């Protein structure tokens, strides 16, 4: 799919990448639906019950299936991720090969795109707000293998991030570097602050360049935030805690202001819009599921990473990236987040080898003792 993207520079990829990635996940899922961690089954059961409950309410209110899936896709994805948790699918060599290949493919495609395309937001698979998140997650899997990236990998990744022009991408990258670099405050901390400061300046430069000559109000995400605040102005504390009734439409005045995004209006009634039009996963999640629902999503993702023995700092980076990406776009509601998380969950880290060896030894001992 990545090689196919070099065919065109007016659209990102000639292949239906979203559908292909989702198909890959489903096919892999058929091979993994066994020997799951007990708490992973609890995640599957909990998500399934919640989906069943909300779907029944949506069906009762005659909500279109497409509108429902857009709002609750993240819970379906978490069920899928639960099946990958605790599995070892990728060796160190495979992850390194994948990451290095993607670095060069992304770099070449972004450079060629910026030279020949009139659209100044390059992409390999899709709009780079999404695929940059995937690259960051794979880089975290690589970092978790040896607690570092090589200088070449850092340089290439930095070039890709800033060439993307993605606000959420550069902010997430800045947060990742900060969390990976600063874990104690001493003299070395101050030495690490210089490159982080340089990245911070780059972040500000990208944010300013995206204003297109206007002020902060020219940023579309500010308009979405204003619509969100208007939609919740009459909420009580129970609404803030648990969200609105499943698939509650946004106020008509908010929809009228966002009419430019007509493709995101209801599949059933083009005059109605739901929280998906707000773009930001964080705002969508709070509107549909409340602060408690948002907390549960991040709690589950962190728990699944714990099952897979993902290092603590890498877990913090993943959660920070998901949150920061979710401030702008789809976060865990995107298949590109799920693909990156699958790599993180299923990489065979060195410390997992010792754990698996101990576990198998105990299992064999238990079998022998029972005979």
TrEMBL record:
Coiled-coil ranges (or none): none
Domain of life: Bacteria
Transmembrane segments annotated in the record for this chain: 15-33, 40-62, 68-86, 98-116, 128-145, 154-181, 193-211, 286-305, 317-349
Keywords of this entry: Membrane, Transmembrane, Transmembrane helix
Protein's name in the database: O-antigen ligase domain-containing protein
